[in-house]
Each structure stands twice: as structure tokens, then as C-alpha cells.
Amino acid sequence: MDRNHNGYVTAKELKYFLRLHDARVTNREVKEFIRKLDESGDGQISLHEFMKAFSSQRRSFTTDFRTIRR
After folding, report:
1. How many domains, the chain?
2. Per the database record, which ranges form the EF-hand domain (predicted)?
3. 9, 16, 27, 28: which is deepest, by most CB within 10 A?
4. 60 is a domain residue
């Protein structure tokens, strides 16, 4: 996901990754998802933020994307 290997995932990188895996998401949906994970408020997801979110809330991410799409 981290295409430039800087230790962060931006909205653009996340959208690219999701589209590679046939997920149909809008820019707005991706930005909202980033906002939910971005504890530092820098507009991108660090490896720490990503791992923390996925290890503690695996099931809620499916729900988050469904909620965003509504």
C-alpha cells in the first residue's frame, strides 16, 4: 500500500490499493476512512495507526465502509 515506502499511506495510495483489489470506492469514501484512522491528524496513516486500528477493530472496518457508502 505504501507505494513510495515512506512509512505512511495517503488517501491516493489507499485508493490505488483498493481499486487493485476491485473495491469500488470514491475519493470521499477513502478520505473519510483515512480520517477515521488518522490519530495524528496529518492526513495520512502511519504504520502504527494502521496496525493499531486493524488489530483492535478488524470487524468494524467492513462496517465503516458500509456506513460511509450510505
Report:
1. 1
2. 1-24, 25-60
3. 9
4. yes
Residue that has been written with the C-alpha cell 487493485 in this structure:
20
In a domain, 2, yes or no: no
Place of cell 470521499: 28
CB-side neighbour CA atoms (13 Å) of 52: 10
- For residue 32, what pLDDT is reported? 93
Of 32, 3, 4, 27, nearest to 15 (Cα)? 27
40 inside domain? yes
First to last CA, the chain: 25
Q: Which H or E element spans position 46?
A: strand 45-46
